[in-house]
Amino acid sequence: MSLYILPKEKLGIFVEALKANFRVVGPTQTETGYAFEDIDHVEQLQLDYNTTILPPKKFFLPQREVLFEFHSDTHHDGRRKIDVRPVYQDVEPTVIFGVHTCDMNGIMLYDKVFAEGFRDEHYVARREQIYVIGVECLHPCDEASFCKDMGTLTAPPIYDLHMTDVGPHYMVDTGTPKGERLLLDHIDVAMARKEDIQELGRVLSAKWPQFKLRLKISKDQTPSLLALGYNARIWNELGERCLACGSCTNVCPTCFCFDVHDESNINMQDGERVRLWDSCQLAEFALVAGGHNFRQTKASRVRHRIMRKGKYIKQVHNLLGCTGCGRCERACLVNITIPGTLNALHEEMQLESGI
Amino acid sequence: MLTTPLVNHTTTTTPRAYDGHTSVYLPTVATIVDVKDETALEKTYTIRLPGGQNLGHVPGQFVMVSVPGVGEVPISITSSPSRTGETFRLTIRRAGDVTGVIHTLQVGDEIGIRGPFGRGFPIETFRGRDMLIAPGGLGLAPARSLIDQIIDCRNDFGRLIILYGARTPSEILYMDVIREWQTRGDIELLMTVDRPDSLWNGHVGVITTLFEEIEINPYNTIAVTIGPPIMYRFVTIELLGKGLSPDQIWMSFERRMKCGIGKCGHCQVNHRYSCQEGPSWTYAEALAFEEAL
After folding, report:
1. Roughly what angle, to the nearest 10 degrees, separates helices B140-152 and B175-184?
2. Which run of H or E residues covers position A152?
3. B233 Cβ partners below 8 Å, 6+ apart?
4. Distance CA A353, CA B190 (A)
5. Per-residue pLDDT tens over the stretch B107-129
């Protein structure tokens, strides 16, 4: 929409002003890496971070989320009565600073999954209170990222504000009217001038050569490659290596599957139904009553995850299920990677077809 | 015979409103108005929604049944739309924590209901056809919804053939109802058990052995089979062998649904969410995804 200039020395004033009205979170340095945490002082905010351990998923889909409270007890007539009351957890005005473009693509997917079709009011209530402030990626996070391959190195149109570091100041783009109000209500900023916009163009065009391609195919070919490779040998090889620990799905910005279960208080009458992050890599995920498991082997579970990332989510939501953020690769204890898998599958299919 | 109108084919459920909020996860509190013992493992519950509200389902759909404090499970609907007024019926096998507690519940107790969910059988498109229904074991519970619906509009359909297989005589569901079906004269019913007891004088063998006993018109027959996954592999061979095409064969692909609305991921069959796009699929549809069979 409109471009504004935010001098770097005014970032602290902006954050302080926001804190009066919002919960403010952003990338901070922790002992084990960067993490999205609450910002108490602007010095904690590390907008030039490389990557966070977890994506900002936790603010959109809490790891443990109460769906409703229940009360059940036995009346004097001996009959069991129940009462249920919905809970909307973690709904508060929140500003998330410093979201990378890969993670914005993840948020775009949550919006499709949870706000379209059957509206998930728990998600929507929280989502409506969240402001996304993106930050332009000017350098690759590390060797594990492959955002350029996945087409996620450009900000998708879901941000309220998007910041680009152009040296002495940030260029701020307003993506939504509510984002523009957020900016103008909390800080006095000037519109970008012609030479500022020219400088932004130079910064953006200079960033692209720094990002390397890792895939031997284009992202548009992944659904058809995976369709061809459903019975490839590589799944068995990966299944033998995989520890089925679920780390990959935990850190993934596009893994949104969940388990639902009840937690009762000690009185066994009151309690909560909660949803928890779940993982299709765990053995019980596709287990049904009677003991049949539709994905008994680790090979079938690894395949399901990669199929979701590169094919299934695209078929259902018309967005690829992988943002190229590289987190699963960093988290994997046995070096199972998405680029490595797709490249190996591509080679296997080429050998098979004699090309 | 009076022809009762068939219900509209619905695929959705309405979110529950509460204090101005809505949540698709919030169950409706319903009351158990009857409990009937079927076998050692199964009971049939008659359930009434608040105000006697009609469930509005089609055969082949399911509901999510809640026991707060224990959990929620998907259960196929047993009663036909034609026999669902202010109450509906669920036949529930004691198979885990939630169904174990449900089996302790009695008339007057309350449970939570969400749904109906999923795509049921498109019974409108079956009108005029011969129907071959082949349930195995507990598959008779959802099949009964379809069978009763057909019986209640009997003139709208051609032959009604039921091939039912159970593991043992003591596991046969709805024996009283089956006897009625046998005596009506407009249902061809064959039953078999895998393992007979000393009192059984009927057919012995797996369900596929019943197919040798019947001839069908392959041009005009719709087959519906509901049972454990392994059964589908063998029943489809029999049906294809009789000349049916894969899109004349309907099946139910039940998975461990946790949300019912195509989000939680547990019921996925390849990219399809069986809670929404299924659980009813034709064999032709199922052939398109590797994880179905």
Report:
1. 40
2. none
3. B293
4. 49
5. 999 999 999 999 999 999 999 99
Q: Which of B14, B255, B267, B268 to mutate to test the interface with A (most CBs of A within 10 A)?
A: B268
Q: Is B25 in Cβ contact with A273 (below 8 Å)?
A: yes
Model pTM? 0.93
**What tokens appear for A134 in the block?**
């993106």
**Residue B145: φ, ψ to 5°:** -60, -45
Which residues, 6+ apart, have CB-to-CB distance to A237 below 8 Å? none
Note whether B78 and B44 are within 8 A (CB): yes
Parallel, antiparallel or unpaired: strands B28-37 and B110-117: antiparallel
Digit-by-digit pLDDT tens for chain B (293 residues) are 333 333 333 333 444 444 444 788 999 999 999 999 999 999 999 999 999 999 999 999 999 999 999 999 999 999 999 999 999 999 999 999 999 999 999 999 999 999 999 999 999 999 999 999 999 999 999 999 999 999 999 999 999 999 999 999 999 999 999 999 999 999 999 999 999 999 999 999 999 999 999 999 999 999 999 999 899 999 999 999 999 999 999 999 999 999 999 999 999 999 999 999 999 999 999 998 889 88
Taking the C-alpha atoms of residue A207 and residue A135, their distance in angstroms, rounded to an integer, is 13
**In the predicted model, what is the mean pLDDT of residues A202-228?**
96
Type of residue numbered A58: K
The HSE-up count of residue A349 (CA atoms within 13 Å, CB side) is: 19
Residue B15 phi, psi (nearest 5): -60, 150
Distance from CA of B72 to the nearest CA of A (A): 8
Do A78 and A128 meet the contact criterion of CB atoms below 8 Å apart? no
Pair B82, B153: CB distance under 8 Å: yes
Count other Cβ atoms within 10 Å, centred on residue B124: 12
Mutate to test the interface with B, among A72, A75, A280 (most CBs of B within 10 A): A72
State whether residue B287 sits within 8 Å of chain A by CB: no
pLDDT 10s digits, B40-65: 999 999 999 999 999 999 999 999 99
For residue A157, is the peptide bond before it cis, meaning its omega torsion is within 30 degrees of 0? no
Q: What is the layout of strands, in order, in the sheet containing A270-277?
A: A80-86, A64-74, A270-277, A258-264
Residues 238-257 of B with CB under 8 A from A: 254-256
Nearest-neighbour CA in chain B from A288: distance (Å)? 5
Which of the pair, A118 or A200, is modelled with greater confidence?
A200
ipTM above 0.85, yes or no: yes
Give A200 to chain B, closest Cα distance, Å: 40
Please, which residues bridge with residue A191 across strands? Answer: A4
